[in-house]
Amino acid sequence: MKSILLPTDFSKNSVNAINFAMQLFHDEHCEFHIMNIQKASAFISDDLMTVSTSATIYQTLIDTAKRSITNLINSIEAKYKNDKHSFQSIVDYDNFIDAINQICESKKIDLIVMGTHGASGLERIIFGSHTVRVMQRCPTPVLAIPQGCKFKKPKAIVFLSDYMGLYEEKDVKALIDMSQLFSAKIDVLHIVKEEQLSEVQQNNKAFIDECFGELKHEFIDLEGDNIYKTVKDYIDMNQVEMLAMMNRKHSFIERLFNQHNIETFGFNIKIPFLVMDEP
User: Fold this and answer.
1) How far apart are CA 74 and CA 71, in angstroms?
2) CA angle at 221 for the pair 216 and 222, rounded to the nearest 5°
3) Which pLDDT tens digits describe the chain residue by residue (279 residues)?
4) What would the DSSP string read from start to end of 77-102?
């Protein structure tokens, strides 16, 4: 049975991601952990109020969140009526990333599914800060669902790689599972920078080939100075339904999500984005 974490702030985006997960894993036995995280800034600090009043407000916030999750679970169960799915409610009062990591460890979470937030102006779509931090700082695979994205069975998944990282099969298990679940082809996309691959890159490419085994996959080299535009154009032209990549130091995702670019890049991704942590 898969163990899936669904963080929610009860926004439209987070609820859309939950609905996406229900359809994505419709035929899988899953235990879904629907989690809301409260933080200290959610109410007035203690130095402005008595301890008893603070405790009362804190408890009110927790109780309200618990009721909201219960209502959400009830609506999901009524909508999908799926005996293969079970639900657990979690409300925590902690630092967001710490709370996520603690639950992932204690509940042996296989995948985190989160919604993203849109940005107005210049037709840009960016990832919400919570989603970015989870991608960067959580070892558990994350599937980010863009704002308004509706479920579609993935027939093709792009796996972006520079062949610089060496990892084990377990590190890409989330991608392998996704491909097997829908018999989806994996396009291993490499943005060419040098005329030839180094010996290290050649060895890592061979390992990826072995790692994917009998899965339908193909290695594709593309040239382009603007990596964001090159990947986006390939996705658009080939009707790709999911993008996947590894997260490691000095990787594409780190450059994509550094603090300077997070509010300005125009990647405009509109498909689910699977990020796996590389040890």
Assistant:
1) 5
2) 125
3) 999 999 999 999 999 999 999 999 999 999 999 999 987 554 444 444 444 455 677 777 788 889 999 999 999 999 999 999 999 999 988 788 999 999 999 999 999 999 986 443 333 334 556 787 888 889 999 999 988 899 999 999 999 988 887 778 889 999 999 999 999 999 999 988 777 888 989 999 999 999 998 899 999 999 877 777 888 889 989 989 999 988 865 455 555 555 434 333 334 678 999 999 876
4) HHHH--TTEEEEEEEEES-HHHHHHH
